[in-house]
């Protein structure tokens, strides 16, 4: 009797499980105005995680000739932790000064 109830409840829990995803817009700022932004974007997009999809990107003017890379990512919350992504982006020390979250939305 108890086994049947446990089996039945676990069956229905798995039946209605939906993977949650988040859309995150990042601001990746370079060290200086002379930074090659195409190389920066290529280095950032080269980072691969299971459950991470890179989206659109654009360059935004910050000031004094400095531009920032604004890039969108979609992550599966169960597979990808934001801290891991930020750590890998900040590890690109030759290009990246800082990485900030512009927007974070649950899908």
Total beta-strand segments: 4
CATH homology superfamily name: Ribosomal protein S6/Translation elongation factor EF1B
Given as residue ranges, the uncertain stretches (5+ residues, pLDDT < 50) are 1-5
- Output the number of helix runs: 3
Q: How many separate domains make up the residues? A: 1
Strand order in space, largest sheet? 2-3-1-4
Percentage of residues in helical conformation? 25-40%
- Rg result: 19 Å
Identify the overall geometry. elongated
Q: What structural class results from the helix and strand content?
A: alpha+beta
Report the average pLDDT across residues.
Answer: 87
CATH topology-level fold name: Alpha-Beta Plaits
- List the secondary-structure elements in sequence, H or E: HEHEEHE
Main sheet overview: 4 strands, antiparallel
Distance between the termini: 39 Å
CATH architecture, by name, is 2-Layer Sandwich
Strand percentage lies at: 35-45%
State the CATH class: Alpha Beta
Q: Can you describe this structure?
A:
- With 107 residues, this protein is α+β, with helices and mostly antiparallel strands.
- It is built from 3 helices and 4 strands, in the order H-E-H-E-E-H-E.
- The protein has a 4-stranded antiparallel β-sheet with strand order 2-3-1-4, covered by helices on one side.
- The longest helix has 14 residues, at 2-15.
- The termini are far apart.
- Mean pLDDT is 87; it is low at 1-5.
How are the SSEs placed, and which strands pair?
Blueprint: H1 2-15, E1 21-30, H2 37-45, E2 52-63, E3 66-76, H3 82-90, E4 96-106
